[in-house]
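BUG: 3D viewer hangs when loading the predicted structure for this chain

Environment: internal workstation, default settings.
Expected: structure renders.
Actual: progress bar stalls at 90%.

Input used:
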Amino acid sequence: MASGGGQTVVVLGGGIGGVAAANRLRRSLDRRHRVVLVNRDPDFTFPASYLWVMTGSRRPEQITRPLKGLERRGIDVVIGDVTDIDPASRTLTVGERTLSGDHLVVSLGADWATGRVPGLADHGHTYATLPGAQRLAGELARIESGRVVVVTAAPLYKCPAAPYEAALLIDAGLRARGVRDRVQVVVRSAEPAPMPVAGANVSAAVQQLLADRGIDYQPGRQITAAEPGTVHFGDTSEDADLLVYMPPICAPPVIASSALAADDGWIHADPATLATGFEGVYAIGDNTHIVLGIGKPLPRAGVFAHAQAQVVADTITADITGKPAPAGFDGHGGCFIETGAGRAAYGSGNFYADPAPQVALHPPARRWHWGKVTFEQRVMRRWL
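Structure tokens produced before the viewer hung:
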């Protein structure tokens, strides 16, 4: 903890939520107070652009920055695995070090659980990681004919729009290469409809986007195994010359084994304040499980992590400075769905609406594509 009357805020996790929280805290607090960011990996990468790496329109170095760059802004950066969290004392173990703070912001994300589906990692390709997107880009550049099967490997995954965005971008890339008529693109989703939490109107609109491109879509198809050239869905199987998947997720072990976790392994933070059951400890982003009025969880997406980070940073600032507390997180958010050829659809609304989320999907347009590009550039140039 800081000395000389200052306080220390420790932010766990260097993804969208953690970096946004650390930046906002540093701008809001004077230098008597320390802001410390802890992350397993030395680099920040922008996950929303992984699909552009898949299509070849981004290089990895364009969406990667060293987290140590935050030290120029006055944020202390610690690189290492968080192996233990004691929320009661606001203490954590990072390698051989013990860190503590007056306030903790837990933003450790969700871990991939690819091993839940036998053969998935060995015989499929994912755009959900930067190395995976790089490898998939090579596969897509080579395919000349056959069948591309895009799957959600479980009903619970990160970024609900991403699998459908991936299918649309794959379609657009094949068309640009003049081979789409020889390559079938299909989507098989484990959930009952595309982006079901957003509502039936959004699901129908996404299905129409797929249909307009000749992409066959079937819901309620849980992949159970993969092997060379074949994907299994329970009692049925389909040919796949290229299997593209969004992995299942699970809570990080350090979260699941801590006092922060509920029985399901996730942190059930307060929907508005993001407070946990421990004083001075907040949780944001993918490691939280916030149940909506419809009984489904708030989607795990960077837009929500970003908004939650702002609320929590302002709440901590108010606590330290004595300023009025901010309004809580209100459940509003939106996401872009790239459709190719410089266009994107955009879905936005209130996910906390009662009795069900109120979300609208705006049809593909160039302005939505450029909206995503603008946000990407703002993150890469101004956050790090």
